[in-house]
Amino acid sequence: MADNLVDLLPAQGRRPARGGASCAQARRTEGVVADSANGMEPLDVLYEADGLPAYDLPDELRTLYGGPLGFTEPRVVANFVSTLDGIVAIPGVAHSNRLIRAGSDADRFVMGLLRACADVVLIGSGTLHGSPRTLWIPERAFPSASPAFSELRRRRGQPPDPELAVVTGSGALDRDHPALEAGALVLTTDAGAERLRGRLPAASELVALGSGTSVDPRDAVAALRERGHRLVLSEAGPTLFGTMLAAGLVDELFLTSSPVIVGRPQGDTRLGLAEDADALGSARLELRSLRREGDHVLLRYEVNPRAEELRDPSL
Ligand SMILES: NC(=O)c1ccc[n+]([C@@H]2O[C@H](COP(=O)([O-])OP(=O)(O)OC[C@H]3O[C@@H](n4cnc5c(N)ncnc54)[C@H](OP(=O)(O)O)[C@@H]3O)[C@@H](O)[C@H]2O)c1
Q1: Could you give all domains of the chain from N- to C-terminal order, each with its CATH number?
Q2: Mapping DSSP to helix (H, G, I), strand (E, B) and coil, where does residue 88 land?
């Protein structure tokens, strides 16, 4: 069923359905469009807040993104693509990420760009197992911009790729996963560490973070900070993201909203953006940028910039 569904998706690299980049923008970016292996159009910038930080982006990245990008540090930045009705994962359906992304090259580009900025990419074991062949590096998200991603990291004095950190309470990991073979930091409980000790590929490293059945996400982020990681990119699924959000750990959210509605049949296990956590009244977001690629919109939010509003929900 899933493979047939994927066949129905719009082709990668399609042009925007309506409008698109302005003529001036198109002229400015002609060379980049021609050079881009999959022909992605530069993002159409509909709104950008004043005074956002700016890294020294290579021209290709700045043009495709539609302007500068940067972060104050330290930060935890999360990235998701969601259907219009808020579904981010459909367990049991193969290629559900592609169904949810609905053919957006821009989502893949922004994913690659955020990875290229990050010191570490943080995921939970559900996300690791949901993508059994993936490496969480910039090149895998958007291969044609790989040289520019590398140049950005060189300019910022970072190693060639961000580190990968995987959170698991149980320690039940697929030890043959290529991301563990390539080297990852596994953040787990004492029991999880006991289960995994001596069994991970040599390039991976275990960190035990306490005796409970789960890891306190504050301890997970603190462990990353202790290793010198300032910009943490969460590509975790909705379970880990939900607990991080509820713990007040997420500073920014990048959210691609796809022009699809998938519904939630009774009894179905489709996952919304934040699962297994109550964020009611604890997450108030402020828009920082709004970009468009055809029928997709790409949102950048700051989480809880005004803490006083949380104390008075009527505001
Ligand atoms: N649409 C998107 O943008 C997007 C983004 C990311 C992921 N996804 C999809 O989401 C699905 C996975 O969802 P998910 O919610 O299961 O992913 P997840 O949050 O990345 O992983 C959940 C697992 O991580 C471990 N975990 C999470 N929080 C923990 C904590 N505080 N302490 C200890 N362990 C913790 C647990 O593993 P143990 O059972 O090992 O203890 C838990 O079962 C996949 O299909 C993935 O592709 C979609």
Answers
A1: 56-258+269-304 (3.40.430.10)
A2: strand
